[in-house]
Fold these 4 entries.
Entry 1:
Amino acid sequence: MKASAFVYPWDVVGDPDAARRIADLGVQQVTLASAYHSTRALTPRHPRHRIVTARHAAVLYPPDPERWADRPLRPYRQSWVEGADPYGEAARALADTGLEVHSWVVLAHNSRLGDEHPHTSVRNAYGDHYPWAPCIARPEVRSYVVDLAAEAAVRPGTLGTELESCGWYGIAHLHAHDKIGGVPLGGAAQYLMSLCFCDSCHAGYASLGADPEELRRAVLRALRPVWAGQRGAPLSKGRARGGPEERRAEHGRPSTGAEAPRRPKEQQAETAQGGGERAAEWAEVEKLLGTDHAATFAAWRHRVAAELQRDAVAAVREAAGGPFRVLLHADPAPHRLGANVGVDPAGILRHADGVVLPCTGSDAARADVLTPFLPHRTERTVLAANFTVVAGMGGSPATLEADATHAAGLGADEIRLYHAGLASDADLAAVRTALERLP
């Protein structure tokens, strides 16, 4: 079973032993960050440092000045890893050990972009902006995301890419000194708090024949019991997880295909939202909003996300100009948000070569994530089961062999390991043992 480990360039640059240490885990591939959000990361084995602070979202290669000339939205350069092209340097070192290098591209998640261009951010029903969450319904955001996907994915020496946050982001966001946990927000409440009411989304709701202001008032009414403590208890622990370092307890989010005709509301909910806790979340959304309002939000957001995903994949393939595998970090429930964006399983597998799915957790949770994609796979489709293997971040490296075997039995073709740079020596030893035992 093919395995790939997530890696940051700063895990490799300046550490002459890093590439060989990663290869010795038994992985065949690395998924190397080329465009990433702000973070504070541990580097427990690096000879020069123990903490890397990426102060803002940035690309880890030199961006093309001609592509971004005279554009207000453009990728930011980094200054916390030495060298002009840390991605390229790390990719060469990793490839020299025989590893395949695939890029890891974070798209619609950028706090600095939202701080400097607040009109581009998701604006909730109360009028609050989320700087970390660009609204993908805005034409300028969509153009930026698609061009960033093409440039950051197709780097020299890179054989494929994994696109993270290629869809809607929302309220959930690991943040310095966060103070938003006083009222517990379940999956339905998080969705309601993530609905956007910027001018682009207003126009989108109106295009579907809805009154945007009535939709906004419906969201406010639905959320009143949450603030009173009458609703909103989490439907699952850790549900809000976003990007791989945000994937802790569940490790793990809206979009049916834009090209698909509108389906009856009952069929939309049943098909799009999946089963288990995802179905329970969507049923709660419909209960709080009413089925008509819920269907309007779903139709608009699903269309926007599916069009972005289709265009981003096409842009990457055009930039590659040849064989180049494109996967998306995804969740089978279109209403979910964040790093693992909600997708329509049938729609996404018509465009992308596959998906990377959050599979840390119970057998039942893993089945809920993987099985919706099985009827839509083809010979070229990849279903990659993503496991957190950092014990201190909610991962379970000790059960990796059993968990990966279970995922394979459900139809997973490959596994992903989050994260080779962050894991302790004991975690990595457990990973090495598990990979030795897997077929």
Entry 2:
Amino acid sequence: MKKLWKQHSYAIILFVLSIFTVFIIMNQLGDAESEKYLKITINDGDTLWQIAEDFSAEHKLSPIEFIKWVESNNGIAGERIFPGDELVIPVINNSVNTSQKELASSQ
């Protein structure tokens, strides 16, 4: 083991740092992506089907596609949502776009 470390220590360190860097970059990209979409808070009696229909004018997915997207991107299964849950839905967050436009126009 010591011989392996002596011969390849730089490569091992470089590999570990590369993996760590990729992890950090992917984490930051994921955060930026989730800010792109609207985040809602679930109220008592809400269902994913109802939410899909309420926002149907703002997305081009069928209700089933909408529900699958929400489940996949929020780590839920079987449409199990509870009051107080915050979910990201596949609707563009206009407040992000508005603030970016205001920032660009002010420069």
Entry 3:
Amino acid sequence: MVSLQARQLLAASLGLVAFLGLTGYALDRAFVETASSGLRQRLENMAWAVMGGTELLRTGDIVPPETPQDPRLSRPGSGLYVTILADDFRWDSESALGRNLPLSDALAPGEQRFEGPIATPNGSLYRASVGMAWEISETREAKLTVHVAEEAGVLDRQVSVFRRTLWGWLGAAALLLLGLQILVLRWSFRPLRRVVADMEQVTAGNAERLDGAYPTELTLLTDSLNEMIDVGREQIERTRNILGDLAHSLKTPLAVMRSELESGAQGEQLRETLGDQVGRMNEIVAYQLSRAVTSGRQTFAAPLPIGPCAEEIVTSLEKVYAAKNILCEFDIDASARFYGEQGDLMELMGNLLENAFKWAHHRVLLSVRTMTIAPNRRAGILMTIEDDGPGIAPDQVDRLLQRGVRGDERVHGHGIGLAIVQDIVKAYRGELQVERSRELGGAAFVVRFSPSV
């Protein structure tokens, strides 16, 4: 059962069969009880009617009813029987002729019974009995017992007809409801089939993303799929660009080395030239590798707390810049989380904090705030790293974010740290701004990762 529609249909079918089965059983028992109660009432009423039609003479003789209460009483073996009993008197209806019936019990006056089904040689029957006493004189009375019996086949036939009708209609209703359920399931799963079809179009390259109008329940799924598609394409494009950039960047150092070798240069000049170009190639490879391992925004990434990563980075930087005696302060929201790879977070904060330590006089401030848009969506973060250094002129921001450019050639470094930061921010669809710190007066690098929508 790998099909959701088949699973739903099976579950609905089992539920429907169980419901209709219980309903049919309840209706069947209700009808049987009602029919049995009706039979008892009918037989008891007939017993009282027979009693009312019977006459008792002053001589003590009993005169049974002249006109039968039911035509079946005049037809032998009709299935309806009446017997009147007294001390020395017994009268049976014509229908009881030739029948061995259990209608010989005498009841006390005022006693009533209803019994059945009672097994007899001619089949089962139901019996209603009434006992009474008629006063003949002050010192004499006659005790009578009236038995009215009906064969159980009458009730059984009524129940059989009802059951055939009931289960026939319930079966037809079950088939109708199952057909309706199939139509409802097919209609309900149509959006899912459309998502599958659209994904096949994307896989085949006939569509860029899932652009259909989907129900609200599938919007989160389709948005996540579109995000995964976009991230995958961005990573492929970034990898292609990185390989192209790497090949292009290595062409110049290789050409210089080849030219130097072909020129016949020897000794110290050759070693210096080769050393410079190898160092340059090492910087290029290191930078491109840093770009390659940047995974970018992930739809289902685990949230990473920012505080522990920041403490680890600052601990290392305080050792490197111990001579400057820099104080690094934290103002981090405890609920702030980074959704991505830990290596990207470390690379991002490491380069920004190292830059701040490099240019700060005495103070560095790292602040992180949480940005939310809805309770069920993951929050974004606003990260600001400030220092009390000389700051960056607005007209120099774009230049400093380029690869290989340093703010001061006298300061040690390769000039690729901020470029790596910019690449990471772009990979996670964030924003990087360089401003003047209002609190410390130096540079302020503001990184904004918007909440997931």
Entry 4:
Amino acid sequence: MNFKLADLHNHLNQLKELENTSYYEFLRVSSTSAGLYRLNKGEKDKQQPHTEDEIYLIIEGKASFQNGNETAEISKGDILFVEANKEHRFYNVTEDLTTLVFFSPAEHSNK
């Protein structure tokens, strides 16, 4: 499979307009899933802890990130790891934020 980041951006932008969603899952197999997650400047991150481990790759933007009791300033190129069931969120989004998100196993597999 081959994915073009520009195509994923375009699809997510359409979903955001039509369905008011910030997440577009573009890959799902039993061992992993991947998606594009976008928060606009000032937008609140409403996600809840997931039952699977996650890795975020920050494609663009700037924000703060809370991972359990730890916080960090994040920007393009940063990679974040979140353990399953751990409270986490982006906040203080100062520039439109786009991340690649990888779940292992696939998101919601452990529910």
